[in-house]
Amino acid sequence: xxxxxxxxxxxxxxxxxxxxxxxxxxxxxxxxxxxxxxxxxxxxxxxxxxxxxxxxxxxxxxxxxxxxxxxxxxxxxxxxxxxxxxxxxxxxxxxxxxxxxxxxxxxxxxxxxxxxxxxxxxxxxxxxxxxxxxxxxxxxxxxxxxxxxxxxxxxxxxxxxxxxxxxxxxxxxxxxxxxxxxxxxxxxxxxxxxxxxxxxxxxxxxxxxxxxxxxxxxxxxxxxxxxxxxxxxxxxxxxxxxxxxxxxxxxxxxxxxxxxxxxxxxxxxxxxxxxxxxxxxxxxxxxxxxxxxxxxxxxxxxxxxxxxxxxxxxxxxxxxxxxxxxxxxxxxxxxxxxxxxxxxxxxxxxxxxxxxxxxxxxxxxxxxxxxxxxxxxxxxxxxxxxxxxxxxxxxxxxxxxxxxxxxxxxxxxxxxxxxxxxxxxxxxxxxxxxxxxxxxxxxxxxxxxxxxxxxxxxxxxxxxxxxxxxxxxxxxxxxxxxxxxxxxxx
Length: 490
Ligand SMILES: C[S@@+](CC[C@H](N)C(=O)[O-])C[C@H]1O[C@@H](n2cnc3c(N)ncnc32)[C@H](O)[C@@H]1O
Fold this sequence. Notes:
Layout: H1 8-16, H2 36-53, H3 56-63, H4 71-93, H5 100-117, H6 119-141, E1 143-145, H7 146-151, H8 164-172, E2 176-181, E3 184-189, H9 191-206, H10 209-223, H11 228-235, H12 239-250, E4 257-261, H13 267-272, H14 274-278, E5 283-288, H15 291-304, E6 309-313, E7 326-332, H16 340-349, E8 351-362, H17 370-375, H18 377-386, H19 399-406, E9 409-422, H20 426-436, H21 441-444, H22 449-469, E10 476-488
Parallel strand pairs: 4-5, 4-7, 5-6, 7-8
Antiparallel strand pairs: 1-3, 2-3, 8-10, 9-10
Helix pairs in contact: 2-4, 2-5, 3-6, 4-5, 4-6, 5-6, 6-9, 11-20, 16-19, 20-22
Protein backbone atom coordinates (compact mmCIF):
# COMPACT_ATOMS: atom_id res chain seq x y z
CA UNK A 1 0.00 0.00 0.00
CA UNK A 2 1.27 3.50 -0.85
CA UNK A 3 2.24 5.65 2.15
CA UNK A 4 3.66 9.14 2.35
CA UNK A 5 7.01 9.50 4.13
CA UNK A 6 6.68 10.81 7.69
CA UNK A 7 5.98 14.52 7.27
CA UNK A 8 5.25 15.31 10.95
CA UNK A 9 8.14 17.75 11.34
CA UNK A 10 7.49 19.32 7.97
CA UNK A 11 3.85 19.95 8.94
CA UNK A 12 4.99 21.53 12.21
CA UNK A 13 7.22 23.84 10.16
CA UNK A 14 4.37 24.56 7.78
CA UNK A 15 2.27 25.76 10.74
CA UNK A 16 5.20 27.79 12.16
CA UNK A 17 5.54 29.56 8.83
CA UNK A 18 1.88 30.56 9.27
CA UNK A 19 0.78 28.63 6.19
CA UNK A 20 -2.65 27.11 5.71
CA UNK A 21 -4.57 24.87 3.35
CA UNK A 22 -8.30 25.42 2.94
CA UNK A 23 -9.31 27.89 5.60
CA UNK A 24 -12.52 28.27 3.61
CA UNK A 25 -13.38 25.17 5.51
CA UNK A 26 -13.58 27.26 8.62
CA UNK A 27 -16.07 29.74 7.28
CA UNK A 28 -19.78 29.04 7.46
CA UNK A 29 -20.27 30.62 4.04
CA UNK A 30 -18.20 30.46 0.90
CA UNK A 31 -18.78 33.83 -0.72
CA UNK A 32 -16.00 35.18 -2.89
CA UNK A 33 -13.19 36.90 -1.10
CA UNK A 34 -10.72 37.80 -3.84
CA UNK A 35 -10.84 40.27 -6.68
CA UNK A 36 -10.63 38.44 -10.01
CA UNK A 37 -7.26 40.11 -10.66
CA UNK A 38 -5.80 38.63 -7.52
CA UNK A 39 -6.85 35.16 -8.66
CA UNK A 40 -4.77 35.68 -11.79
CA UNK A 41 -1.82 36.75 -9.70
CA UNK A 42 -2.07 33.56 -7.63
CA UNK A 43 -2.33 31.54 -10.79
CA UNK A 44 0.78 33.07 -12.39
CA UNK A 45 2.75 32.78 -9.18
CA UNK A 46 1.83 29.10 -8.87
CA UNK A 47 2.98 28.45 -12.44
CA UNK A 48 6.24 30.36 -11.81
CA UNK A 49 6.95 28.43 -8.63
CA UNK A 50 6.42 25.12 -10.44
CA UNK A 51 8.89 26.19 -13.14
CA UNK A 52 11.40 27.35 -10.55
CA UNK A 53 11.14 24.67 -7.90
CA UNK A 54 9.52 21.46 -9.20
CA UNK A 55 11.77 18.60 -10.19
CA UNK A 56 11.53 14.86 -10.63
CA UNK A 57 13.68 14.48 -7.52
CA UNK A 58 11.35 16.49 -5.33
CA UNK A 59 8.39 14.50 -6.67
CA UNK A 60 10.10 11.17 -6.01
CA UNK A 61 10.88 12.14 -2.46
CA UNK A 62 7.19 12.17 -1.62
CA UNK A 63 5.39 10.13 -4.25
CA UNK A 64 8.11 7.59 -5.09
CA UNK A 65 7.15 6.20 -8.50
CA UNK A 66 3.49 7.23 -8.55
CA UNK A 67 2.41 9.11 -11.67
CA UNK A 68 1.69 12.52 -10.12
CA UNK A 69 -0.83 14.38 -12.28
CA UNK A 70 0.85 17.42 -13.78
CA UNK A 71 -1.54 19.91 -12.28
CA UNK A 72 -1.11 18.74 -8.66
CA UNK A 73 2.02 20.81 -7.77
CA UNK A 74 0.45 23.89 -9.27
CA UNK A 75 -2.85 23.35 -7.48
CA UNK A 76 -0.99 22.74 -4.22
CA UNK A 77 0.80 26.10 -4.49
CA UNK A 78 -2.35 27.88 -5.63
CA UNK A 79 -4.39 26.50 -2.77
CA UNK A 80 -1.71 27.17 -0.14
CA UNK A 81 -1.21 30.78 -1.22
CA UNK A 82 -4.94 31.51 -1.41
CA UNK A 83 -5.69 29.77 1.88
CA UNK A 84 -2.80 31.44 3.69
CA UNK A 85 -3.94 34.87 2.50
CA UNK A 86 -7.49 34.21 3.76
CA UNK A 87 -6.08 33.01 7.05
CA UNK A 88 -4.02 36.23 7.41
CA UNK A 89 -7.12 38.28 6.73
CA UNK A 90 -9.05 36.36 9.37
CA UNK A 91 -6.32 36.51 11.98
CA UNK A 92 -4.96 40.01 11.38
CA UNK A 93 -8.16 41.84 10.60
CA UNK A 94 -11.00 39.58 11.67
CA UNK A 95 -12.42 39.40 8.16
CA UNK A 96 -12.23 37.14 5.11
CA UNK A 97 -11.50 39.67 2.42
CA UNK A 98 -8.06 39.47 0.80
CA UNK A 99 -6.26 42.51 -0.67
CA UNK A 100 -2.93 42.76 -2.47
CA UNK A 101 -0.97 43.40 0.69
CA UNK A 102 -2.18 40.22 2.43
CA UNK A 103 -1.68 38.25 -0.75
CA UNK A 104 1.94 39.34 -1.14
CA UNK A 105 2.61 38.41 2.51
CA UNK A 106 1.19 34.96 1.75
CA UNK A 107 3.21 34.55 -1.45
CA UNK A 108 6.36 35.55 0.41
CA UNK A 109 5.77 33.01 3.19
CA UNK A 110 4.95 30.18 0.79
CA UNK A 111 8.14 30.86 -1.17
CA UNK A 112 10.16 31.01 2.06
CA UNK A 113 8.76 27.58 3.05
CA UNK A 114 9.54 26.12 -0.38
CA UNK A 115 13.09 27.51 -0.18
CA UNK A 116 13.58 25.85 3.21
CA UNK A 117 11.75 22.56 2.80
CA UNK A 118 11.42 22.05 -0.94
CA UNK A 119 8.36 22.10 -3.16
CA UNK A 120 8.08 18.30 -2.93
CA UNK A 121 7.41 18.64 0.80
CA UNK A 122 4.76 21.31 0.27
CA UNK A 123 3.01 19.15 -2.32
CA UNK A 124 3.26 16.19 0.07
CA UNK A 125 1.59 18.17 2.88
CA UNK A 126 -1.09 19.32 0.47
CA UNK A 127 -1.68 15.71 -0.58
CA UNK A 128 -1.94 14.50 3.03
CA UNK A 129 -4.30 17.29 4.07
CA UNK A 130 -6.57 17.01 1.05
CA UNK A 131 -6.67 13.23 1.08
CA UNK A 132 -7.55 13.47 4.78
CA UNK A 133 -10.51 15.73 3.85
CA UNK A 134 -11.52 13.36 1.02
CA UNK A 135 -11.27 10.21 3.10
CA UNK A 136 -12.98 11.67 6.16
CA UNK A 137 -15.92 12.61 3.93
CA UNK A 138 -16.04 9.13 2.39
CA UNK A 139 -15.80 7.51 5.82
CA UNK A 140 -18.71 9.67 6.95
CA UNK A 141 -20.98 9.22 3.94
CA UNK A 142 -19.94 5.70 2.92
CA UNK A 143 -20.25 6.60 -0.77
CA UNK A 144 -20.35 9.90 -2.63
CA UNK A 145 -21.66 10.24 -6.22
CA UNK A 146 -18.63 10.73 -8.49
CA UNK A 147 -20.01 13.98 -9.90
CA UNK A 148 -20.40 15.46 -6.40
CA UNK A 149 -17.06 14.13 -5.20
CA UNK A 150 -15.25 15.76 -8.12
CA UNK A 151 -17.00 19.09 -7.53
CA UNK A 152 -16.11 18.95 -3.82
CA UNK A 153 -19.64 20.17 -3.11
CA UNK A 154 -20.18 18.11 0.03
CA UNK A 155 -16.74 18.31 1.55
CA UNK A 156 -14.60 21.05 -0.05
CA UNK A 157 -17.04 23.56 -1.54
CA UNK A 158 -14.46 26.38 -1.39
CA UNK A 159 -12.36 24.97 -4.26
CA UNK A 160 -12.63 26.34 -7.78
CA UNK A 161 -11.03 23.37 -9.53
CA UNK A 162 -12.01 19.76 -10.14
CA UNK A 163 -10.99 16.91 -7.85
CA UNK A 164 -10.66 14.60 -10.85
CA UNK A 165 -6.86 14.41 -10.41
CA UNK A 166 -7.19 13.47 -6.77
CA UNK A 167 -9.74 10.78 -7.62
CA UNK A 168 -7.35 9.38 -10.22
CA UNK A 169 -4.44 9.40 -7.75
CA UNK A 170 -6.65 7.69 -5.16
CA UNK A 171 -7.58 5.00 -7.68
CA UNK A 172 -3.93 4.46 -8.71
CA UNK A 173 -2.83 4.08 -5.09
CA UNK A 174 -5.75 1.73 -4.39
CA UNK A 175 -7.29 3.87 -1.66
CA UNK A 176 -10.44 4.89 -3.58
CA UNK A 177 -12.59 3.03 -6.08
CA UNK A 178 -15.57 3.66 -8.28
CA UNK A 179 -18.64 1.43 -7.97
CA UNK A 180 -21.97 1.50 -9.76
CA UNK A 181 -25.03 1.85 -7.57
CA UNK A 182 -28.49 2.26 -9.05
CA UNK A 183 -26.88 3.26 -12.34
CA UNK A 184 -24.85 5.98 -10.64
CA UNK A 185 -21.07 6.04 -10.40
CA UNK A 186 -20.17 6.31 -6.74
CA UNK A 187 -16.79 6.89 -5.08
CA UNK A 188 -15.97 4.81 -2.03
CA UNK A 189 -13.04 4.06 0.21
CA UNK A 190 -11.25 0.73 -0.02
CA UNK A 191 -9.83 -1.18 2.94
CA UNK A 192 -6.46 0.29 1.97
CA UNK A 193 -8.09 3.71 2.00
CA UNK A 194 -9.24 3.20 5.59
CA UNK A 195 -5.69 2.32 6.66
CA UNK A 196 -4.32 5.23 4.64
CA UNK A 197 -6.74 7.58 6.43
CA UNK A 198 -5.79 6.38 9.87
CA UNK A 199 -2.05 6.75 9.18
CA UNK A 200 -2.55 10.26 7.76
CA UNK A 201 -4.83 11.22 10.61
CA UNK A 202 -2.21 10.13 13.10
CA UNK A 203 0.43 12.29 11.38
CA UNK A 204 -1.90 15.28 11.28
CA UNK A 205 -2.77 14.83 14.94
CA UNK A 206 0.84 14.41 16.07
CA UNK A 207 2.02 17.48 14.17
CA UNK A 208 -0.68 19.69 15.75
CA UNK A 209 -2.46 20.19 12.42
CA UNK A 210 -5.82 18.84 13.61
CA UNK A 211 -5.81 21.09 16.68
CA UNK A 212 -4.95 24.05 14.52
CA UNK A 213 -7.76 23.15 12.12
CA UNK A 214 -10.28 22.89 14.95
CA UNK A 215 -9.18 26.22 16.46
CA UNK A 216 -9.49 27.98 13.12
CA UNK A 217 -12.97 26.56 12.76
CA UNK A 218 -13.95 27.91 16.16
CA UNK A 219 -12.38 31.32 15.53
CA UNK A 220 -14.17 31.71 12.21
CA UNK A 221 -17.47 30.67 13.72
CA UNK A 222 -17.10 33.21 16.51
CA UNK A 223 -16.23 35.80 13.92
CA UNK A 224 -19.63 35.21 12.36
CA UNK A 225 -21.39 35.66 15.66
CA UNK A 226 -21.63 39.41 16.04
CA UNK A 227 -24.33 39.21 18.68
CA UNK A 228 -22.60 36.86 21.11
CA UNK A 229 -23.38 39.06 24.13
CA UNK A 230 -27.10 39.44 23.36
CA UNK A 231 -27.49 35.71 22.77
CA UNK A 232 -25.66 34.92 25.95
CA UNK A 233 -27.93 37.23 27.97
CA UNK A 234 -30.97 35.46 26.50
CA UNK A 235 -29.72 31.90 26.95
CA UNK A 236 -27.79 32.25 30.18
CA UNK A 237 -29.72 34.90 32.09
CA UNK A 238 -27.43 34.61 35.12
CA UNK A 239 -24.25 35.21 33.14
CA UNK A 240 -24.01 38.91 34.01
CA UNK A 241 -24.57 38.53 37.80
CA UNK A 242 -22.17 35.56 37.92
CA UNK A 243 -19.43 37.53 36.13
CA UNK A 244 -19.96 40.37 38.64
CA UNK A 245 -19.73 37.93 41.54
CA UNK A 246 -16.49 36.54 40.07
CA UNK A 247 -15.00 40.02 39.76
CA UNK A 248 -15.89 40.77 43.36
CA UNK A 249 -14.51 37.40 44.53
CA UNK A 250 -11.18 38.03 42.78
CA UNK A 251 -10.36 41.03 44.96
CA UNK A 252 -8.72 42.96 42.13
CA UNK A 253 -7.48 46.31 43.44
CA UNK A 254 -6.59 49.64 41.82
CA UNK A 255 -3.26 49.93 40.09
CA UNK A 256 -2.85 46.19 39.42
CA UNK A 257 -1.27 44.82 36.24
CA UNK A 258 -3.79 42.24 34.98
CA UNK A 259 -4.01 39.91 31.99
CA UNK A 260 -7.39 38.58 30.86
CA UNK A 261 -7.12 35.40 28.81
CA UNK A 262 -9.77 34.68 26.15
CA UNK A 263 -11.25 38.16 26.65
CA UNK A 264 -13.45 37.81 23.52
CA UNK A 265 -15.44 40.95 22.79
CA UNK A 266 -14.54 42.44 26.17
CA UNK A 267 -17.66 41.65 28.21
CA UNK A 268 -15.79 41.00 31.45
CA UNK A 269 -13.56 44.04 30.91
CA UNK A 270 -16.21 46.61 30.16
CA UNK A 271 -19.78 45.46 31.00
CA UNK A 272 -18.72 43.60 34.14
CA UNK A 273 -16.19 46.25 35.09
CA UNK A 274 -12.70 44.67 35.32
CA UNK A 275 -11.18 47.74 33.61
CA UNK A 276 -12.93 50.14 35.96
CA UNK A 277 -11.86 48.13 39.00
CA UNK A 278 -8.19 48.30 37.96
CA UNK A 279 -8.44 52.00 37.18
CA UNK A 280 -6.12 54.26 35.21
CA UNK A 281 -3.21 53.70 37.59
CA UNK A 282 -3.13 50.05 36.51
CA UNK A 283 -3.18 48.19 33.21
CA UNK A 284 -5.13 45.30 31.71
CA UNK A 285 -4.07 43.32 28.66
CA UNK A 286 -6.79 41.27 26.98
CA UNK A 287 -5.63 38.35 24.83
CA UNK A 288 -7.72 36.26 22.45
CA UNK A 289 -6.91 34.37 19.24
CA UNK A 290 -10.01 35.68 17.43
CA UNK A 291 -9.22 38.96 15.66
CA UNK A 292 -12.94 39.62 15.03
CA UNK A 293 -13.65 39.47 18.77
CA UNK A 294 -10.68 41.72 19.55
CA UNK A 295 -11.76 44.28 16.94
CA UNK A 296 -15.13 44.43 18.71
CA UNK A 297 -13.43 44.78 22.11
CA UNK A 298 -11.17 47.56 20.81
CA UNK A 299 -14.19 49.47 19.54
CA UNK A 300 -15.84 49.24 22.97
CA UNK A 301 -12.60 50.37 24.62
CA UNK A 302 -12.58 53.53 22.49
CA UNK A 303 -16.26 54.09 23.15
CA UNK A 304 -15.60 54.02 26.91
CA UNK A 305 -12.47 56.19 26.41
CA UNK A 306 -10.35 53.78 28.46
CA UNK A 307 -6.62 54.05 27.75
CA UNK A 308 -5.30 51.63 30.35
CA UNK A 309 -6.53 48.54 28.50
CA UNK A 310 -4.78 47.03 25.48
CA UNK A 311 -5.26 43.90 23.38
CA UNK A 312 -2.99 41.32 21.83
CA UNK A 313 -3.94 38.43 19.60
CA UNK A 314 -2.65 35.30 21.31
CA UNK A 315 -3.65 31.93 22.65
CA UNK A 316 -3.50 31.22 26.33
CA UNK A 317 -1.20 28.24 25.69
CA UNK A 318 1.44 30.61 24.36
CA UNK A 319 1.22 34.03 26.02
CA UNK A 320 3.68 36.54 24.52
CA UNK A 321 4.82 38.02 27.86
CA UNK A 322 7.85 37.45 30.02
CA UNK A 323 7.79 35.42 33.26
CA UNK A 324 6.23 37.23 36.24
CA UNK A 325 4.77 40.18 34.31
CA UNK A 326 1.35 40.43 35.97
CA UNK A 327 -0.23 40.70 39.44
CA UNK A 328 -3.25 38.70 38.29
CA UNK A 329 -4.02 36.50 35.28
CA UNK A 330 -7.72 35.77 34.94
CA UNK A 331 -10.28 34.60 32.39
CA UNK A 332 -13.94 33.72 31.86
CA UNK A 333 -15.39 30.78 29.88
CA UNK A 334 -12.37 30.12 27.69
CA UNK A 335 -10.76 27.03 29.24
CA UNK A 336 -12.97 24.65 27.25
CA UNK A 337 -11.19 25.81 24.09
CA UNK A 338 -7.72 25.33 25.40
CA UNK A 339 -5.38 22.63 26.53
CA UNK A 340 -6.07 22.86 30.28
CA UNK A 341 -2.59 22.06 31.63
CA UNK A 342 -0.68 24.15 29.11
CA UNK A 343 -3.10 27.03 29.69
CA UNK A 344 -2.75 27.00 33.47
CA UNK A 345 1.05 26.60 33.30
CA UNK A 346 1.31 29.61 30.99
CA UNK A 347 -0.98 31.67 33.22
CA UNK A 348 1.13 30.76 36.26
CA UNK A 349 4.39 31.51 34.42
CA UNK A 350 3.52 35.14 33.69
CA UNK A 351 2.16 35.78 37.22
CA UNK A 352 4.41 37.58 39.72
CA UNK A 353 5.33 35.88 42.99
CA UNK A 354 2.43 36.46 45.37
CA UNK A 355 0.07 37.24 42.48
CA UNK A 356 -2.85 35.02 41.47
CA UNK A 357 -4.35 33.06 38.60
CA UNK A 358 -8.14 32.63 38.36
CA UNK A 359 -10.78 31.20 36.06
CA UNK A 360 -14.56 31.23 35.86
CA UNK A 361 -15.82 28.30 33.79
CA UNK A 362 -18.82 25.99 33.39
CA UNK A 363 -18.37 22.41 34.59
CA UNK A 364 -19.25 19.34 32.56
CA UNK A 365 -22.84 18.48 33.62
CA UNK A 366 -23.49 15.13 35.35
CA UNK A 367 -26.82 14.44 33.66
CA UNK A 368 -28.42 15.56 30.45
CA UNK A 369 -32.11 16.56 30.78
CA UNK A 370 -34.60 14.47 28.73
CA UNK A 371 -35.51 17.29 26.36
CA UNK A 372 -31.84 17.92 25.66
CA UNK A 373 -31.13 14.27 24.90
CA UNK A 374 -34.01 14.15 22.42
CA UNK A 375 -33.06 17.43 20.80
CA UNK A 376 -29.33 16.84 20.53
CA UNK A 377 -29.53 13.09 19.77
CA UNK A 378 -27.71 13.48 16.39
CA UNK A 379 -24.80 15.10 18.22
CA UNK A 380 -24.81 12.43 20.90
CA UNK A 381 -24.72 9.80 18.13
CA UNK A 382 -21.71 11.52 16.60
CA UNK A 383 -20.06 11.61 19.98
CA UNK A 384 -20.42 7.85 20.22
CA UNK A 385 -19.00 7.46 16.70
CA UNK A 386 -15.97 9.71 17.18
CA UNK A 387 -15.25 9.13 20.86
CA UNK A 388 -12.06 7.13 20.21
CA UNK A 389 -10.37 10.31 18.98
CA UNK A 390 -10.77 12.02 22.33
CA UNK A 391 -13.33 14.75 22.81
CA UNK A 392 -12.35 17.87 24.67
CA UNK A 393 -15.18 19.05 26.88
CA UNK A 394 -15.86 21.25 29.85
CA UNK A 395 -13.70 20.58 32.89
CA UNK A 396 -15.05 18.22 35.51
CA UNK A 397 -15.32 18.72 39.34
CA UNK A 398 -11.76 19.12 40.63
CA UNK A 399 -9.94 19.09 37.30
CA UNK A 400 -9.11 22.80 37.17
CA UNK A 401 -8.10 23.00 40.84
CA UNK A 402 -5.81 19.99 40.26
CA UNK A 403 -4.26 21.67 37.22
CA UNK A 404 -3.66 24.76 39.40
CA UNK A 405 -1.85 22.75 42.03
CA UNK A 406 0.19 20.89 39.39
CA UNK A 407 1.25 24.33 38.09
CA UNK A 408 2.63 25.04 41.57
CA UNK A 409 -0.10 27.45 42.56
CA UNK A 410 -1.07 27.41 46.24
CA UNK A 411 -3.88 28.45 48.64
CA UNK A 412 -6.29 27.28 45.96
CA UNK A 413 -9.91 28.34 46.50
CA UNK A 414 -12.91 27.00 44.62
CA UNK A 415 -16.50 28.17 44.56
CA UNK A 416 -19.33 26.43 42.69
CA UNK A 417 -22.53 28.25 41.70
CA UNK A 418 -25.63 26.54 40.21
CA UNK A 419 -27.14 28.36 37.22
CA UNK A 420 -29.29 27.30 34.28
CA UNK A 421 -29.29 27.50 30.51
CA UNK A 422 -32.54 28.48 28.85
CA UNK A 423 -33.40 26.55 25.66
CA UNK A 424 -36.80 28.02 24.81
CA UNK A 425 -35.66 29.66 21.54
CA UNK A 426 -34.54 26.72 19.32
CA UNK A 427 -32.80 28.76 16.59
CA UNK A 428 -30.88 30.95 18.95
CA UNK A 429 -30.06 28.10 21.32
CA UNK A 430 -28.63 26.00 18.47
CA UNK A 431 -26.53 28.87 17.12
CA UNK A 432 -25.25 29.83 20.51
CA UNK A 433 -24.36 26.33 21.60
CA UNK A 434 -22.73 25.43 18.30
CA UNK A 435 -20.93 28.63 17.37
CA UNK A 436 -20.67 30.61 20.58
CA UNK A 437 -19.80 28.14 23.29
CA UNK A 438 -17.93 25.76 21.07
CA UNK A 439 -19.30 22.78 22.99
CA UNK A 440 -19.40 20.55 19.92
CA UNK A 441 -16.44 21.92 17.99
CA UNK A 442 -14.25 18.88 18.42
CA UNK A 443 -17.02 16.76 16.94
CA UNK A 444 -18.11 19.13 14.21
CA UNK A 445 -14.54 19.58 13.03
CA UNK A 446 -14.61 15.91 12.03
CA UNK A 447 -17.80 16.16 10.02
CA UNK A 448 -17.68 17.11 6.31
CA UNK A 449 -18.80 20.58 5.36
CA UNK A 450 -22.24 19.74 3.97
CA UNK A 451 -23.03 17.28 6.74
CA UNK A 452 -22.18 19.96 9.29
CA UNK A 453 -24.61 22.42 7.72
CA UNK A 454 -27.26 19.68 7.50
CA UNK A 455 -26.72 18.81 11.14
CA UNK A 456 -27.14 22.39 12.32
CA UNK A 457 -30.29 22.67 10.23
CA UNK A 458 -31.61 19.43 11.69
CA UNK A 459 -30.88 20.59 15.25
CA UNK A 460 -32.90 23.75 14.66
CA UNK A 461 -35.80 21.68 13.29
CA UNK A 462 -35.66 19.23 16.19
CA UNK A 463 -35.62 22.20 18.55
CA UNK A 464 -38.92 23.41 17.10
CA UNK A 465 -40.47 19.97 17.64
CA UNK A 466 -39.19 19.83 21.23
CA UNK A 467 -40.57 23.27 21.90
CA UNK A 468 -44.00 22.09 20.83
CA UNK A 469 -43.78 19.07 23.14
CA UNK A 470 -42.48 20.69 26.34
CA UNK A 471 -43.66 23.56 28.47
CA UNK A 472 -41.19 26.46 28.22
CA UNK A 473 -40.26 26.24 31.90
CA UNK A 474 -39.17 22.63 31.30
CA UNK A 475 -36.63 23.71 28.68
CA UNK A 476 -34.11 24.54 31.34
CA UNK A 477 -30.70 22.90 31.68
CA UNK A 478 -29.18 23.22 35.17
CA UNK A 479 -25.40 23.48 35.21
CA UNK A 480 -22.68 24.51 37.64
CA UNK A 481 -20.19 27.27 37.04
CA UNK A 482 -17.00 27.23 39.00
CA UNK A 483 -14.54 29.87 40.15
CA UNK A 484 -11.00 28.77 40.92
CA UNK A 485 -8.21 30.97 42.25
CA UNK A 486 -4.63 30.08 43.21
CA UNK A 487 -1.58 32.09 44.26
CA UNK A 488 1.91 31.89 42.89
CA UNK A 489 4.22 30.98 45.75
CA UNK A 490 6.61 33.74 46.93
C1 LIG B 1 -17.18 31.81 25.21
S1 LIG B 1 -16.07 33.05 24.72
C2 LIG B 1 -15.85 33.94 26.24
C3 LIG B 1 -15.39 35.33 26.02
C4 LIG B 1 -15.22 36.21 27.23
N1 LIG B 1 -14.20 35.72 28.14
C5 LIG B 1 -16.52 36.39 27.96
O1 LIG B 1 -16.57 36.17 29.15
O2 LIG B 1 -17.52 36.73 27.31
C6 LIG B 1 -14.57 32.14 24.60
C7 LIG B 1 -13.39 32.92 24.09
O3 LIG B 1 -12.23 32.09 24.18
C8 LIG B 1 -11.42 32.38 23.07
N2 LIG B 1 -10.45 31.30 22.82
C9 LIG B 1 -10.55 30.23 22.00
N3 LIG B 1 -9.43 29.49 22.05
C10 LIG B 1 -8.61 30.12 22.93
C11 LIG B 1 -7.27 29.87 23.38
N4 LIG B 1 -6.59 28.81 22.96
N5 LIG B 1 -6.72 30.76 24.24
C12 LIG B 1 -7.41 31.82 24.68
N6 LIG B 1 -8.67 32.10 24.29
C13 LIG B 1 -9.25 31.27 23.42
C14 LIG B 1 -12.41 32.56 21.95
O4 LIG B 1 -11.85 33.23 20.84
C15 LIG B 1 -13.51 33.35 22.65
O5 LIG B 1 -13.34 34.72 22.52
